[in-house]
Amino acid sequence: xxxxxxxxxxxxxxxxxxxxxxxxxxxxxxxxxxxxxxxxxxxxxxxxxxxxxxxxxxxxxxxxxxxxxxxxxxxxxxxxxxxxxxxxxxxxxxxxxxxxxxxxxxxxxxxxxxxxxxxxxxxxxxxxxxxxxxxxxxxxxxxxxxxxxxxxxxxxxxxxxxxxxxxxxxxxxxxxxxxxxxxxxxxxxxxxxxxxxxxxxxxxxxxxxxxxxxxxxx
Length: 218
Ligand code: BG6
Ligand code: MG
Known about the structure:
By secondary structure, the protein is α/β, with parallel strands linked by helices. Helix content is 44%, strand content 11%. The chain is globular, with a radius of gyration of 17 Å.
């Protein structure tokens, strides 16, 4: 059997934490008088915490001191963590377990490639941490998505050539990062948003094991 590297984004792919990021950013943005809707939120998906706050300030035409910047980031993260602390394995998105189990059965490399600094906490919360052969997250990279660094590091940690890796992503920035890494990009979400991906599925339920086996055999 061929061995490929399957690299999963976390937020919005494995768990529906994208909604918690949205709620926490919206609360923070509104607290400083910046309007924030789903449209702005889409542009923050896959983007690091620092870059996200920079963008919100830019949209609101705000300049603040470095001190206040750090404070706002902490407020957002504390708020976000109140949601995360209540998580359990019921918040794993549909059919993620089936896909992971199938890949494990077929002895494939499995990695996490996430921008989040909370990735390990979340994987532990939902009891998935032991499914991953490698974890690369926001603590391990200097350049955020769409830069391919996170996925290149994940491939390296798996010991699998980047051309033999497949990335699952719900964000535009993440799909672009996978493409820049010369990996197969699979968008999880809407075709109109993720059209730069090699394949797009609404969710994992739409993705059959026969598709996965084709990727492995390629
Ligand atoms: C990404 C999310 O996975 O992680 C972004 O899509 C988030 O919305 C980023 O800002 C950083 O996450 P965290 O948990 O380190 O604030
Ligand atoms: Mg994501």
